[in-house]
Amino acid sequence: MDECVPCATPMEQNLKLRQADGDLFANGKLYHSIVSSLIYLTHTRHDISYVVQIVSQLMSSPRTTHWSVVQRILRYLHGSPEVVLWIPAGGEPMLKAYADADYTGCLDARRSTSGWCVKVGSSFISWRCKKQDQVSKSSTEVEYRSMSDVASGV
């Protein structure tokens, strides 16, 4: 990975992965090991939370297309070592919360994904990206669930 070409984003825009896309990846243990390390890394690199959440759902039978997404995440990390969780001293202690969701983002389960973050001043103090527990009937319902999650701190 030392000589890889860095990329600007951890995932291609509008990419939708399915459980059965592509051929089975030959080295499942490598896939599991790297994705597990990426899950741990999301504690300080919140910019990869969404894409790591996606590839971690595909660990039961990793495919070559899933592996290419993991490689892209690694290329992104290689090219952006300066992006870290930073908590500055001082500043205005204003609490802000943001929430967003995609409607039926998971093509296999037809469930939506919620993402939210909470900041104090300019520092992130909590964030989450998770597939919703229930299938929603509308995009409005998906957004309300996401707002409810951030308000309750789930």
Largest sheet: 3 strands, antiparallel
Total strand count, please?
3
**Overall spatial form:** flat
DSSP helical segment count:
4
Strand content: 15-25%
User: Helix coverage percent of residues?
Assistant: 25-40%
The neighbouring-strand order within the major sheet is 1-2-3
The whole-number mean of residue pLDDT values reads 85
Low-confidence stretches: none
Structural class: alpha+beta
Rg over alpha carbons: 17 Å
Total of domains: 2
Features:
three-stranded antiparallel β-sheet; 2 domains; flat; 154 residues; alpha+beta
List the helices and strands and how they pair.
Layout: H1 28-41, H2 49-56, H3 64-79, E1 95-102, E2 113-120, E3 123-131, H4 139-152
How would you characterize the overall build of this protein?
There is one protein chain. With 154 residues, this protein is α+β, with helices and mostly antiparallel strands. It has two domains: 1-84, no CATH class; 95-152, no CATH class. It has four helices and three strands; from the N terminus they run αααβββα. The chain has helices at residues 28-41, 49-56, 64-79, 139-152, and strands at 95-102, 113-120, 123-131. The chain has a three-stranded antiparallel sheet with strand order 1-2-3. Helix 1 (28-41) packs antiparallel against helix 2 (49-56).
